[in-house]
Amino acid sequence: MLNSNLLKLLLICNIFLFISASAGYQANPRIRFSTPTEVIASSEFLAQEKYGIVNRKAIAYMDRYIRVNEESLMMIRKKHQSTFRMMNRVFKKYKLPQQLKYLAIVESEMKPTALSKVGARGTWQLMPETARILGLEVTEESDERTSTALSTKAAALYLRDLHHEFNDWLLALAAYNCGPGPVYAAIKKSGSRDFWKLQDFLPAESRGHVKKYIAVHYHFEGKAGVTTQTAEELLASR
């Protein structure tokens, strides 16, 4: 019998798949949100000890992330409803999953002035050259990365391009963090285009980035919205 943590991850994956196939997706049926469900949700896969260990690590990582950041996530949920609605409109315009807005939480905790040590700035943590390519003005006098509306449009275009390049959303999310080069290197080294099989060949920050996104997605759109209920209770409520 599956333990409660594994059931919880399966629930996360199933909700992730269900929500990602929502109205925001139907406009372009060729785009499919690649999810852990295809890898995890089969008895044959779960029976493989090697990948079972990987899955338990993923469960622990996402569980811990939600627990540590739960108060902050609840505050963001309360404070940024109007910003989320704006982001929904942008992603809908570009026929992308509206749930991609949760990536902004992982990137910057929705802070327009956030600045990383490597120079990524704004809600979507865009690097200067990437931002310029995407049409944003980045000069000493003006930096449009700090405009949440303008940078959301730029991030949508970038995510759309990354998905077209990899045809897989989890790889696109990893590439958003580290760039396409390291993702292609991980594909070559692993011999797979499956995130869950190539993740150990990615930079640690990038594989964590994807798992944080899945955790935040679940926190905001999972039926419970918090981690205090057991997986069995959550499954029973579906």
UniProtKB/TrEMBL annotation:
- Gene3D superfamilies the UniProt entry points to: 1.10.530.10
InterPro entries per record: Lysozyme-like_dom_sf, Transglycosylase_SLT_dom_1
Instruction: Return the SUPFAM superfamilies for the record.
Output: Lysozyme-like
Residue ranges of domain Transglycosylase SLT in the record: 94-198
Against Pfam families, the record matches this protein to: SLT
**Family listed:** Belongs to the transglycosylase Slt family.
Question: Which named protein is this?
Answer: Transglycosylase SLT domain-containing protein
Give the source species.
Answer: Flavihumibacter stibioxidans
